[in-house]
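1st attempt posting a full record on here, be nice pls
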Amino acid sequence: MTRDVLVTISGLQVMQQESGVEPVDLITAGDYYKKNDKHYVIFDEVMEGFEGVTKNIIKICEDCVDITKKGFTNVHMVFEKDKQNMTCYETPFGSLMVGINAKSIQLLEKENDISLDLEYSLEVNCEHLADCTIKMEIQSKEGGDFRICS
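the predicted structure (as tokens):
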């Protein structure tokens, strides 16, 4: 895998209330490296309609995914299968106590491509908010065979 990568993130939040399903999609350039059998992906995220960026650092190993966001929003989320992790999610509009319970973490590594599938439930202020899925593709830019998550 090269250092320069294309990061594609597709997600879905199935809400418990009448608001229904909320899709999330992001495609951006990023940096990749591997250290001590852990994959690291770093990229900047711009929120539409707001100034500033959020720096994302994602650490991936077989049974754990660690996501840190700093900037417009600030949070350190840990996804461990069958374990609930609590964190404080700071936004410009206030802070939320968030609970993450990962149900499934599937990691597939190839020479120039890493695929990650996460399924988890999300709580806010100790109340179930949504069942969520995230599909992440990290692809070497040099490979040139980019595909978008579906």
